[in-house]
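@here heads up, posting the sequence + SMILES for the zinc ion run so it's all in one place. Ping me if the SMILES looks off, I pulled it from an old spreadsheet.
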Amino acid sequence: MAKVRLRWGRIVGLLVLAALLTGVGKLLTAELPPAPETARAAPDLSALPPVEVCWLELSRSDVWGQLGTAGLTRTKTWKNTASGLLVRHPEGDVLIDAGYSPNVREEIQRRPPLQRFFNSMALRGTRDETPLSAALQRVGATPEGLKWFIPSHAHLDHLGGMVELRQVPVLVSPEEEALIRDWRHRKEVYPEHAQAVEGRMTAMAFQPKPYENFGESFDVFGDGVVVVARLPGHTPGSIATFVNLSPTRRLVHVGDTVSLTESIERRLPKSTVLQLFTDTDPDTAGASVARLAQLHVLAPELHFLPAHDRDAWEEFFGGAPGCVKAR
Ligand SMILES: [Zn+2]
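bot reply: prediction finished. Complex structure tokens:
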């Protein structure tokens, strides 16, 4: 009897050791394979109109850094932000992302149990909540002045705020429009948010015109200020949005393809937990991260703006929400 127990003890011990080694191995080998070699198609930025770009912070929280990337994360505390990016263009304002709905806590209660649990966890510790209309007002903008709302993707913390702005035209990638329309069968989209934008969505007409290291692009005003590229994986129609203030002052909003800029610099996917719970297709998301890592090398002047990485927003906007112009 004692012998049998000893043997079982050894087997369990070996299994635990194997699990530990696999875990450590995963931490050390998280780096993604590089993107296929692509020549850079540098845009012509010589005739940009004068524009201003504003950071509208809608809520924030602090998260354990290790949840930010796969591998051993260097960021100790992930300063998490839910923010809108407002581009003030001579032809009208463009808003990228709208934060949570003011009714998010009620909306969550109507979701399936696992999603309810995960979304409630994500909301814990959230502070400094500001309604979207108030954030617009703070920088002197109005809902009527918005020519377009562009969601980086259709998740609750990017589309939800649109329940407040039911008149603004919405510009989306064709894949995300299809996802939103299919809300009855897709858990990624909250019904309240789909219904808030239904009937006023326009699908972006991507052109086979290379832009940086992307094969296609969509230029919102046709003047090079706001240019969109497909960045699928987190959701089918996730996008990267380039905003060019001048040839040297440029940013690219990358939605939730990564949580931290560190992921782009080190070619690391999101943490396994976030991949499992938030990415529609983690492999495709990984390829999109590799493409961003390649872009970072090709165009070092570009400032990367992951939707939730407050450090990256602080760096571009000089520490706090507000507006900046071309230098
Ligand atoms: Zn998000």
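MO: The two ends are 79 Å apart (CA to CA).
MO: One more: The longest strand covers residues 52-64.
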